Each structure stands twice: as structure tokens, then as C-alpha cells.
Amino acid sequence: MNSLRLLVPVLVLSFLSAALRAQTPTTGMIEGRVFDSGRAEYLERARLTVEGTTLETFSDESGQYRFTNVPVGTARVRVFFTGLVTQTVAVAVAAGEVAEHNITMAAGPSRGGVGGDTAVKLDKFVVATSKEMD
Asked: pTM here?
């Protein structure tokens, strides 16, 4: 009877440890901030996605973002913000861990037009009107 009392807790602990090993996380998290070097400020509403997944988020008013349930391995995070060069960065994700990755965005080369250094030259065009009569 005493040996049975000792055997039951040992069996329960064995089953619990096996169950915990089976629940080893297969995902991690990525978090950080998105910074605009041209304006020297953090970006709100930068769109971030993890390539090859449906994961998507936007940075908040302080530039912070967070992805949860990111598959373990190397994640390719793509960052888009209107007027800045889209970036894709590789981030190593470990099971059950948080990978911190800050991103600095920059403006691309000027193509002229609004906000550019040069004027846009258009071809000649003609404006005409006509009045149709029945």
C-alpha cells in the first residue's frame, strides 16, 4: 500500500513532464520601433508584414510594433510607409522568445515633382472645347 502511494505521484509527474515537453512553443514574437531618419521622428501607421504569412500590423503613435505567433526561424519583415523606400529585413525568431528589431526608414532618391528638387517637364498638350448642335 505504501509503495502504491509513492508510485502514484511519480507517475503523475512523469505524465505532466511529457505533456509540457509536447507543448514546446513553435512560435516567437518580434517587436521594435520604426524610425524615419529624414524627419528624425518615429513613424505612426507604418505597415509591417511578415513575408510568407498573413501576419500584418501597423506601428503606433510612438513607432512601436509587435508581431505574435511568428514561426520559428528567419522571418522576413517588410516595412512600407508612403514616401519612403520600402524595406525588407531578416529577423531571427526563437521559440517562445521575443526578438527585438528596430527599423530605420529613409527617403529614396528624388524623382522630381512634389517635394523633389527638380520640376517635372510635360509634353505639349492642347485644351479644346466644342459645342455640338442638333
From this structure: 0.64
